[in-house]
Amino acid sequence: MDINEFMMLTDEDIDYSSLSVDILKGLALGDELFIATSALGELSRRNSSVAVSTAWEILLNSRGDCYLQAAALETIFEYDQEKALTYISEQVPKCNTYILNSILEIMIENEFVFKSKNVSSLVSIVLQRVKGLDSTTQYPEPEVIDNFLNMYSNIKNTQVVDALT
């Protein structure tokens, strides 16, 4: 089957584990969002270099929806933390709230990375964004915000000032 034939199927009808890396990459960069997200997930399980390059293309070109972009960010963080940290630092002030939710989840699951000195300013920027959110937004989820604040709210004010200047 070629990529166009896969696009006529539903996400549940595709056995991603049997597909080639090239087909998975094409599906991940395609317009069918459920298929794209599943294909990216299979790439991530199978091949880190192609998964990272595909995920990076999704983020750089704002492909898909916020769910695909959040999955792309998670894939990049798994295999290339420096690239993910750079993306987060550039995007956190303006990113979609669902992607912000994913950023918070990444930070909660990887506390040791984000509490290191070289990214403390990034934590401060994220903290400022979270504190500035409208309470009526659907995302980030309240329990994610609570977990994040419990974990990171003890950052020194000097770090927050440094992050904002």
Overall mean pLDDT score?
Answer: 90
Task: Please give the share of residues in helix.
Answer: 55-70%
Number of domains: 2
Q: What is the strand tally?
A: 0
Annotation field: number of helices: 11
Coarse morphology: elongated
Low-confidence stretches: 157-165
**Main sheet attributes: strand count, strand direction, barrel closure:** none
Structural class: mainly alpha
Distance between the termini: 54 Å
Fold blueprint:
Elements: H1 3-6, H2 21-28, H3 33-46, H4 48-60, H5 66-79, H6 81-91, H7 97-109, H8 111-114, H9 120-131, H10 142-152, H11 157-164
Helix pairs in contact: 2-3, 3-4, 3-5, 4-5, 5-6, 5-7, 7-10, 9-11
Tell me briefly what this model is:
It is built from eleven helices and no strands. It has 165 residues and is mainly α.
Features:
single chain; 165 residues; mainly alpha; 2 domains; 11 helices; 68% helix; disordered C terminus
Task: Describe the 3D structure.
This protein is mainly α. The protein folds into 2 domains: 1-79; 81-165, no CATH class. Helices cover 68% and strands 0% of the residues. The chain has 11 helices and no strands. The protein has helices at residues 3-6, 21-28, 33-46, 48-60, 66-79, 81-91, 97-109, 111-114, 120-131, 142-152, 157-164. Helix 3 (33-46) packs parallel to helix 5, helix 5 crosses helix 6 (81-91) and helix 7 (97-109) packs across helix 10. The protein is elongated and about 55 Å long. The relative contact order is 0.09.
